[in-house]
Fold:
Amino acid sequence: MAEYKCKYCGEKFAKPLDLARHVRMKHKRATKRAKKAAEAVTSTEQVNKTIEAIGILRGLQVSPNLSAEEKKLLGDVTKTFEGLVPK
Ligand SMILES: [Zn+2]
Structure:
């Protein structure tokens, strides 16, 4: 007899339909929610890190021992980072 094993918890089912129903009932909703939460955390962290980087770059830009070329380069990098932060 064929067995269909749940990839989430390892429970076995005789019919693929039973497995599909089990996954839908027991796992799908939770998985979706966890995924969404992880995405939210990741993007918030990324935005925070980007903002932090912009702050560091701005600080570097005003440092007195930089050449005009280096300042321009830093300015360009800062602009790129600023483009990554949602408005
Ligand atoms: Zn399961």
Q: What stands out?
A: Helices lie at 16-61, 68-84. Residues 6, 8-9, 11, 22, 26-27 surround zinc ion (CB under 6 Å). The chain has a mean pLDDT of 89. Residues 47 and 85 are 6 Å apart (CA to CA).
